Amino acid sequence: AQAVSNIVAELVEEGFLVEQGRRRTARGQPPVELAVNPDGGMTAGMEIATDHVTTVLVDLAGKIRAQRSARLDDVTVAGVQRLAAAELTQARAANGLPRRLLGCGVVMPGPFEVEGMNSVGASPLPGWAGQDAGQLLTDALGTPVTIENDATAAAVGEHLHGLGRNLRHFCQVYFGAGLGLGVIIAGQPYRGAFGNAGEIGHIPVVRGGLACACGGQGCLERYASVHALAETLRAAGIADTGPDEIARLHAQGHPALLGWITEAAGLLAPVVAM
User: Fold this and answer.
1) Distance between CA atoms of residues 72 and 134, nearest Å
2) Tally of helices (H runs) and strands (E runs) in the chain
3) Is the torsion defined by CA of 78, 132, 42, 142 positive or negative?
4) Sheet bearing 52-59, strands edge to edge
């Protein structure tokens, strides 16, 4: 009891908890009501994709307090560092936000630390191979940074807030620019040795198939991914590959889209089953 009291007192002193008065009881000293202080600090979340950077600030109660998205034109290390730092600064500039920033979680497309890989994801992020992304972004943002595979982060979000809330074990297929898979086992994310567990996008599925950014040929994400769908539609003379246009083409039963679905499903299904 004394240890708990000391820890709670420290959390109150540091601003992470707030006292809300005493609760009336029949006998004994009335206990003090405590609650998490939403303004005790914030954490940042950032997605670094091949074409944009999205930033959110979340308070200690889990509420999103600021959100921004910016186009990423310079995908070099220095370019990403500059934009990420500018976006975090802008997000924190709003009035009424807690000043204390406890850290930043960053999601990037995998795979990570794979020997022979010459890029990251379906569209290269030049210069990131072999780099310590966490340290580079910690230096740029001025706060501790944790790096996570985007598919794994999506699965964690689904487990905490989505359809996976009541599931102890599940996999989530993640269609980004490439193709990933987030794995939850016994309620915890399964990352593997280098954070690449579930990285199904670079499993070769077509012998001698299309060249992939990873240096291989016939990888699954060259056929089943948003990037692959956009390529298929452009080859059919369709310039607009946004979600609204894709939905319209699907409703019309456009042969290029239906053909892509058939091919992608045929290649994706056995990999998911495996």
Assistant:
1) 19
2) 7, 10
3) negative
4) 64-71, 52-59, 42-48, 101-108, 145-149
Token reading at 106:
């960053």
129-170 tens-digit pLDDT: 677 888 999 999 999 999 888 889 999 999 998 999 999 999
Cα–Cα distance for residue pair 192/161, rounded to 1 Å: 23
> What is the maximal distance between C-alpha atoms in the chain?
79
At residue 14, the 3 state secondary structure works out as: coil
Per residue in 73-118, pLDDT tens? 988 889 999 999 999 999 999 878 888 999 999 998 766 655 444 3
Tell me the CA distances in angstroms from 250 to 53, 253, 261, one per residue in order.
29, 5, 10
Single-letter residue type at 263: E
Give which of 49, 140, 135 is closest to 88, Cα–Cα: 140
d(CA 215, CA 230): 21
N-term to C-term CA, the chain: 50
**Residue pointed to by tokens 């039963």:** 253
CA distance 187 to 196: 18
Number of neighbouring beta carbons within 10 Å of residue 247: 11
Signed CA dihedral, 113, 187, 173, 149: sign only: negative
Distances (CA, A) of 198 to 101, 183, 239, 266, 271: 31, 6, 32, 19, 11
Residues in a beta bridge with 1: none
